[in-house]
Amino acid sequence: MEKQFEGRTALVTGGSRGIGFKIAERFASEGANVAILDVNEEALDKAEKSLAEQGYSIYIKHASVTERDEVEQAIQEIAGRFGSLDILVNNAGVIRDNMLFKMTDEDWMTVMDVHLKGAFYASRAAQHYMTKQKYGRIINISSTSALGNRGQSNYATAKAGLQGLTKTLAIELGKFGITANAVAPGFIETDMTKATAERIGISFEELVSASVSQIPVGRSGKPEDIANAVAFFADERSSFVSGQVLYVAGGPRG
Hints:
Blueprint: E1 9-13, H1 18-29, E2 33-38, H2 41-53, E3 58-62, H3 68-82, E4 87-90, H4 105-133, E5 136-141, H5 153-173, E6 178-185, H6 191-200, H7 204-212, H8 223-234, E7 245-248
Parallel strand pairs: 1-2, 1-4, 2-3, 4-5, 5-6, 6-7
């Protein structure tokens, strides 16, 4: 039985853990060559070991998406090793949550750089290969926070910016057989949401319970839920879907 992404190459930035790792693992399980860029060396080692033990074809690189040269070199190496770059998932992200009056310049710029500069560098480098092969899938990981969220003026702005980038890439790159879409997760159980619980001074269980009470389907999200949505946008059969934002949040959003 043919696998969904047999013969394709997928790059997931920030793919060493959480949502990013589950996306990478999903692609690998469906036959794709998978590349992961991340700054967390310990998490990268664990991800590499986990995927290698499952017999998957992988490329792991310690690199920062905020460094143009590192991103371009990595993408050149990926295309050279696997012969193509077909799918890019701009997943790398950080949080520096605080109320506006407490937020520092560094809090703001760090979040902007990782999410927006990172997605820009990776998308620009990837399209070089995708336009030549007349095929590509770019998926940006946004968030329901793009609609506004207390204590996240930086993160909300960056995630909204990714939606604007998505729609523009769809317009510019469509004629080359490239689609661009965004997945906007709601509450997902990850290390990042655990950090949020710690920041606001409650247990993770309390945060999950409070969040679930507001989610129509009555459960919290898992990284696999986001991987499923990304896989839809990455599929060859979704070629007439571009410039869209899919809220994966257990209920209606923007």
